[in-house]
Design goal:
alpha/beta, five-stranded mixed β-sheet, Rossmann fold
Length: 274
């Protein structure tokens, strides 16, 4: 795979909103609560005739004891390693934070094209405040609003100029297999075992997976896409603030043609075409 762009930054700076704009979808969950995105989330986009893959990542938090934030850090590092170019998103309203400085140090060591993107510059005064981000020493800054789309053209012009090809791998027509079941029955662990990677975050806490996560499997002569999903719960058991949004995203993806493997405890798998 080539032409991969990773979107990284601290929590709640607008990465998922920008991902949805680039992919012209609502695949990434967007909520004002920080930490909604956890796993890496992939999508496709194109600009000026050049196709590319986009990776949405969770917000990077340094020196945290939270089990989710430690796992999110790993996923961000995986995305940086995989990417050909990196959009480093910051929040104009917050100014330069300690977290921005930590991520800057990580990106310098990555030795890849980095595009410092100051989001939420919705008025002239914030565009002036955005100049403070030059202090990070990453070169030019790009002022955008991921909500309205303003400023994204100049940013994407610069990003696609670094690509060496115009196309990415076409996944159209590749079979999809969705792994569904109740929370904490081992869906994410099952996919990680099949792929031999830490593709999906796994913790003992029910509800770890939120977004539907696509993983391409290309081994032993087979080529298909595995879709990890959030655990299915009764409505009376749902309490998380983002649950209704997550469910709508999950069911929208499951309505696309695919096979479904139902995981339960003890281990039992039911395969069905939908």
């Amino acid at each position: 795979m080539s032409n991969i762009v990773a979107i990284v930054g601290c929590p709640n700076v607008g990465k998922s909103t920008f991902f949805n704009r680039l992919t012209q979808s609502r695949d990434a969950i967007v909520h004002e609560t920080a930490g909604v995105t956890r796993d890496r989330h992939y999508g496709k986009s194109d600009w000026n005739g050049k196709e590319f893959s986009v990776i949405d990542t969770g917000g990077y938090v340094n020196n945290s004891d939270d089990i989710f934030e430690n796992e999110i850090q790993k996923q961000v590092h995986f995305a940086i390693e995989e990417a050909d170019a990196i959009i480093f998103m910051v929040d104009a309203n917050l100014g330069v934070t300690a977290g921005d400085e930590v991520i800057t140090d990580i990106l310098r060591r990555a030795d890849k094209p980095v595009f410092l993107t100051v989001n939420k510059t919705d008025n002239p005064s914030l565009m002036i405040e955005a100049q403070a981000f030059y202090s990070l020493g990453l070169g030019d800054i790009y002022t955008i609003s991921s909500a309205s789309g303003s400023g994204t053209g100049d940013l994407l012009d610069a990003v696609v100029a670094t690509f060496t090809s115009d196309k990415v791998d076409d996944e159209a027509g590749i079979p999809k297999i969705a792994i569904v079941g109740r929370p904490n029955v081992g869906k994410s662990s099952f996919i990680n075992a099949l792929t031999g990677t830490e593709r999906n975050i796994v913790t003992p806490i029910a509800g770890t997976t939120r977004d539907p996560i696509n993983t391409r499997y290309q081994k032993f002569g087979h080529d298909f896409i595995l879709v990890d999903t959030a655990g299915l719960r009764k409505k009376s058991k749902v309490s998380e603030i983002s649950s209704s949004t997550r469910c709508s995203v999950r069911y929208a993806q499951l309505r696309r043609p695919m096979y479904v493997s139902l995981c339960s405890t003890p281990h039992r798998v039911l395969n069905r075409r939908i």
